[in-house]
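Re: the request from the purification team.
They wanted to know what the chain is likely to look like in 3D before they choose a buffer screen. I agreed to run a prediction and write the result into the notebook, where they can find it.
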Amino acid sequence: MARVAFADESGIDGSTKCYAIGVVSVAASRIGHFNQVFESLKRKHGVDNEVRWTSVRNSHGLVNLGIDWLHRIVTSSTARFDAIVVNTALYRKWRDSAGREEAFYRTYTFLLRHLALRVREETTVMIDDRSDEYPKRHEVVETITNRMLAQLHATGRLKDVIKVRSHDHPGIQIADMLTGAVASSHRLFLDPAAPINAAKRLAIQRMASLIGWDALHYDTFPHDKFNIWHFPLECRGTPASRKINVARLAPFITPAELGTSHKRARGSR
């Protein structure tokens, strides 16, 4: 069975103590339904603009869309979310600012290898378009990942790694929301004084409650729906490795919880 994956990253500007890459994937046969649900949930939660974690400020609708989507992923028949969180102080290759692009794509390769090993299927990966010093990095990722998989005699492989515009692909936007939440939660763990607004903090708590956690800064034991991998090795189990316990849908956030009016809180306006 073919699979489609959508990937995005958060925190790679070098200003924070970690960055994350996340991948939302689903059976290729379900993409039409996946996109229909995306538009339906945008209407349900009053979100008009592109879905982005950076747009979460005083918008309860955008937060609730993220909560709703994570719940649907962990209870779906084919969807999953996988992420790698990189502690930049401990990642030796990242310390050389001139080599950060290569270091970043190296961790991208590790994550996609992990996904292919777990799903054991041919996967087309769409990544958010970004300006790279070397414009064919995504092609290198595909080649190297498949070479690794072949050496492991894995049944899964990458069919293509393609750069796309996030505006055109709901899966990229969902990956943006979930990856941003994971990165921000880990950032708070590393730096409790990090300037992360109240809406994002509340979003992190509600999303975490869907998998039986109090935050999203843990790494996970292998799971078929939700995985967070801390990198490099020294970060594993910091602060702890936890099992996933899928819970019922958490209560949606209300405008009152953010101190906003209904009009101000709609969508990402």
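For the purification team: The chain has one domain: 3-265.
Please add any questions underneath this entry.
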